[in-house]
Amino acid sequence: MQAGSLNIGKKSFRGYRGGSTISLFHCTNKKGIAVISKRSLLQSTLTLALAAGFAGAAFGQDKPLKIGVTAGPHAQIFEQVKKVADRQGLKIQVVEFSDYVQPNAALAAGDLDANSYQHKPYLDAQIKDRGYPFAVAANTVNFPIGIYSKKIKKLAELKEGARFGIPNDPTNGGRVLLLLQAQGLIKLKDGAGLKATPLDVVGNPKKLKFIELDAAQLPRSLDDLDASAINTNFAISAGLNPKTDAIAQESPDGPYVNLLVVRAADKDKPWVAQLVKAYQSEEIRRFIDTQFKGSVLPGW
């Protein structure tokens, strides 16, 4: 090699997130010192910048997906889903709500991209009442409703005329009555279905007196009732352990599994499938099992 001549070579490496292969041309002088031309460096920098954007562009993202959840287990779970999705190139912003009405209203208005907090009977009622153009993207988790008491250890100990608390909203009130029917305590008229009310009870051997209260008040009313059915999220907030304190629970494979909901127009978009994949991953299943110890169950 003549003095002043250069050896020209080529190196490749993987780019940011997208996994693109980027080539850098480099030269070595006679002392073996690498020299990179300004043109090659500029080209490589631009390629890296493009590669960094491709991960988000693959899902059409110019901003994070906004996912609406209610405070408590749903929020805790989605904070973990956010981490899994981020590693897959999908950005998420978790938005918490304190009631059951606003997450659907916000999704319909376009302020959210999806929500995760409701079961199908509730969703069906919302769509019927409000005309929401929603679609179910996937099952998420199940919160089996339980029966609790400070006075008895099993349902068979309920005395005639016992005061029994149930939620006063149609979907959860009917849910409890179906549970009591499954336990052999009452009989509902044919066709009562998921929205059964105490008026649909046609068999009540123990003459149970149903006390209808707001679901959030039921844990605080246990001292005044012989037994009460309490939603899992309210039970946990009140310091009850659904797995050890409930004297009866509904089957986890019933119709009350919770859902990931999107606008119908978005259902087939790539980001929806990626979001479902992140949620229904083994990492999230393990988190649910470890964090909630059986009081919240994977629904997929």
List keywords for this structure.
single chain, alpha/beta, D-Maltodextrin-Binding Protein, domain 2, 3 domains, five-stranded mixed sheet, globular, disordered N terminus
Structure report:
- By secondary structure, the chain is of the alpha/beta class.
- It folds into three domains: 51 residues, no CATH class; 123 residues, D-Maltodextrin-Binding Protein, domain 2, CATH 3.40.190.10; 104 residues, 3-Layer(aba) Sandwich (D-Maltodextrin-Binding Protein, domain 2).
- Helices cover 33% and strands 25% of the residues.
- It has a five-stranded mixed β-sheet, with helices on both faces. A five-stranded mixed β-sheet has the order 13-10-14-9-15. Strands 1-2-3 form a three-stranded antiparallel β-sheet.
- The protein is globular.
- The N terminus is likely disordered.
Give the gist of this structure.
This protein has 300 residues and is of the alpha/beta class.
Itemize the secondary structure elements and their pairings.
Blueprint: E1 7-14, E2 21-28, E3 34-35, H1 38-57, E4 65-70, H2 73-87, E5 92-97, H3 102-109, E6 114-119, H4 120-130, E7 134-139, E8 141-142, E9 146-148, E10 163-167, H5 170-182, E11 187-188, E12 201-203, E13 209-213, E14 227-230, H6 232-237, H7 242-245, E15 248-249, E16 258-263, H8 270-279, H9 282-292, E17 297-298
Helix pairs in contact: 2-8, 2-9
